[in-house]
Design brief:
Pfam family, one: zf-RING_5
Keywords: Metal-binding, Zinc, Zinc-finger
Distance between the termini: 82 Å
Structural class: alpha+beta
GO molecular function: zinc ion binding
Number of strands: 7
Strand order of the largest sheet: 5-4-7-6
Shape: elongated
InterPro entries: Znf_RING, Znf_RING/FYVE/PHD, Znf_RING_CS
Strand content: 5-15%
Protein name: RING-type domain-containing protein
C-alpha cells in the first residue's frame, strides 16, 4: 500500500511501479470518513451522495459524499491541503472520477501545482448552459413542428455513468424527438471542443463531455393533439414526371 494513498500523484506512481491492474484491488478508503470507496454504484445509499472516489484538482482523493458535505459548510477549499477550488461561477470543484486501470490514468490532467488548470465553470453550470443553448436552437428550428415548440420542449443530457439531466421536471412519459441535423452537428462540435480543451489546456473538467448524449424531448406528450415526424433536412429529389 502506498504512503499517502489519498494523494493522486503518489497513488499513480505506486500503481505504475507495481503494475496494479485495477485500483479496486487496493482496498482504498476515503481519508475523511475512513469508509471504503464504492465503485460502479455497489453499496451506494440512494438517499445520499455515493462514496465513489473523486480526485480534486489539487490531487487529493475523497469520496463524493464527503466532498459535497464539506462544501455544504460554505468552504470552497480542499479539506486536506486548503487549496482554493472555486470556479468563476462561484461553485466549488467536485473532482473527477478516480481512474481505476492503467489505460485511463493519463486521462487526468496534471494537478494544479504541476500545471493543471481550473475550468471557468462547474459541470452543472456547463450542462445548464448547454440546455439553454439547444432549447433555443430547437425552438428556432424550422424542422421542428410548431405544435411541439414552447414550454414543454426541452433537452435531456446524459454523461458517462450518470443520470440524465433534463431541462424540465419529468412527471410522466416523455416523447423523444428526432433532432435536426444542424443541432446534431452543433453537438458534435461542442463535444470535440471540450475534448480538445481538456487535452491541450490540461483543464480539470468535472464532466466527461466525450461521452455526452443529448436528446430532444417533449415533456407533456399527452397534451399533443397530433404528433408529426420532423421533416427530413434533405433536399427533395426533383420529380421527373412530366
Amino acid at each position: 500500500m502506498p504512503n499517502q494513498e489519498h494523494f493522486w500523484p503518489n497513488l499513480k506512481v505506486f500503481a505504475q511501479n507495481n503494475r496494479v491492474a485495477n485500483l479496486e484491488t487496493l482496498g482504498l478508503e476515503c481519508v475523511v470518513c475512513r469508509d471504503s470507496f464504492h465503485y460502479r454504484g455497489r453499496g451506494d445509499d440512494e438517499t445520499q451522495p455515493p462514496r465513489r472516489p473523486r480526485v480534486l484538482p489539487c490531487g487529493h482523493i475523497l469520496c463524493a459524499r464527503c466532498i459535497l458535505a464539506y462544501y455544504d459548510t460554505g468552504d470552497t477549499r480542499c479539506p486536506i491541503c486548503r487549496t482554493e477550488l472555486v470556479h468563476d461561477c462561484g461553485h466549488a470543484h467536485t473532482g473527477m472520477p478516480l481512474p481505476l486501470t492503467p489505460g485511463n490514468m493519463d486521462k487526468l490532467p496534471p494537478i494544479l501545482s504541476q500545471g493543471g488548470g481550473m475550468p471557468r465553470g462547474c459541470g452543472p453550470c456547463g450542462i445548464l448552459g448547454l440546455q439553454r443553448l439547444f432549447e433555443r436552437e430547437l425552438n428556432n428550428s424550422p424542422y421542428i413542428p410548431e405544435e411541439l415548440k414552447g414550454e414543454y420542449l426541452g433537452i435531456g443530457i446524459m454523461l458517462y455513468s450518470s443520470d440524465e439531466y433534463c431541462s424540465r421536471e419529468v412527471t410522466g412519459p416523455v416523447l423523444e424527438i428526432e433532432a435536426p441535423t444542424s443541432i446534431k452537428h452543433m453537438i458534435n462540435e461542442i463535444v470535440a471542443y471540450a475534448v480538445r480543451s481538456q487535452r491541450r489546456n490540461q483543464v480539470w473538467l468535472e464532466a466527461d463531455f466525450s461521452s455526452m448524449k443529448i436528446r430532444a424531448l417533449h415533456f407533456k406528450p399527452d397534451i399533443l393533439s397530433r404528433v408529426e415526424e420532423s421533416p427530413a433536412e434533405q433536399e427533395t429529389a426533383p420529380n421527373n414526371e412530366n
